[in-house]
Amino acid sequence: MTSTELRILELYSGIGGMHYAAKMANVDADVVFSVDINTAANEVYRHNFPKTNQQARNIQSLSAREINNLAPNTIMMSPPCQPFTRVGLKLDVQDPRCSSFLHLLHILPDLASVKYILMENVVGFETSAMRNAFVEALHQCHFQYREFILSPECLDVPNSRNRYYLIAKRNEDFSFGIQDELNASFPSASLMKSQRGKVLQPYLESLDHEDELMKYLISDKTLSKYWRILDIRQKSSESSCCFTKAYSHYAEGTGSVFQHADNPSMDECFEKFRLNDEDVRHLHPLKLRYFTPREVSNLMGFPQEFKFPSTTGLKTRYRLLGNSLNVLVVANLVNLLTT
């Protein structure tokens, strides 16, 4: 079977998760134009895709005429999520960060070459006024769509990252489901699943050298203050918590940490810790550390060739990954969209 040919306009491109997903999917994909306003993300994108026409642009500066000259048949995008989160005050369409998305909806009727759309956002978008405006624009332009809340766990990835997704195609319906029904799983059994397995060990770096390991060890100050809320995982763990942009900066709710040492027992160390006035020195044998950016990248489905420029600092790497998406989930959605 001949693969579908996609000419992709990649909006809010970040560090290139959508681009990698298109490469991973069973399609012939060409990203004809890529846009983001984040300087650090653009540097990472260009480091990995030096031949792609990637520009630091506000999407509101894109006209229908400019887009039509590129003749894309696909739009892939991950608009800002802050308007739909508690931290972002849930201002929804009133948030200035929705302006670029609203601009896209305004010009969508004039984008005659666009047949496919794939969009990713946070859980909560599905109940927003912005979502309602989006699907209304799709209706007016004769798109059929399906919506999902998916986590990479359904693809045997040991990481939880529930996200909202919408796929749409013009003048053609899907062979599964109905519009306005939120799907919690993929409809197809023929999925690309993780090749690394269901436990964490294959996703990990060895960090054999002490100086490498030291960069990621959790400080005594953090251990003393937050030991009760740390989500500690081991090599055999079959899950881990979602990594956010605040990973390693804040301890609570930003992602799991890892017990690097195979021995001694975690229970034994914490028992000694509690019996000795919570002296954190009793936790040192566990070598509790943060997951490295490479390990987070692995869990998010980025291929081995994905790299950060040497100039990208550690906290910036975590922030950019926390703002990105799971490549494997999106690759499966691309296949679903185009079959």
TrEMBL record:
Single biological process term from Gene Ontology: methylation
A family per Pfam: DNA_methylase
EC number: 2.1.1.204
Gene3D superfamilies (UniProt xref): DNA Methylase, subunit A, domain 2, Vaccinia Virus protein VP39
InterPro entries named among the record's database cross-references: C5-MTase, C5_MeTfrase, C5_meth_CS, SAM-dependent_MTases_sf
A single cellular component GO annotation: nucleus
Recorded coiled-coil stretches: none
Keywords linked to the UniProt accession: Methyltransferase, S-adenosyl-L-methionine, Transferase
Enzyme active site: 81
An example Gene Ontology molecular-function term: methyltransferase activity
Family: Belongs to the class I-like SAM-binding methyltransferase superfamily. C5-methyltransferase family.
Protein name as it appears in the record: tRNA (cytosine(38)-C(5))-methyltransferase
Source species of the chain: Moina brachiata
Name of the gene this protein is made from: EOG090X0A4V
